[in-house]
Design goal:
The chain is mainly beta. 0% of the residues lie in helices and 57% in strands. The protein has no helices and five strands. InterPro entries: NA-bd_OB-fold (IPR012340).
């Protein structure tokens, strides 16, 4: 599992982006990839990276217990 921070999330559109902690690498995710409800910009999350035809994306995104 990787740790990152939500850059932005648009629930009305069903997608968002997160950034790996301490890096500039960003990955997209879709609402169907969320395991935790109420995710918002600035939340620290844990996630798995998966590869698709378009590149890597974040899967199994859940809020982390890190403060």
């Amino acid at each position: 599992m990787h740790t990152g921070i939500i850059v932005f999330y648009l629930p009305e559109k069903g997608y968002g982006y997160l950034r790996l902690l301490n890096t500039r690498e960003e990955f997209h995710f879709r609402e169907k990839n969320l395991l935790s409800a109420g995710i918002k910009a600035g939340d620290i999350v844990r996630f798995e990276m998966k590869e698709s035809r378009q590149g890597y994306f974040a899967d199994k995104v859940e809020r982390s217990n890190l403060a």
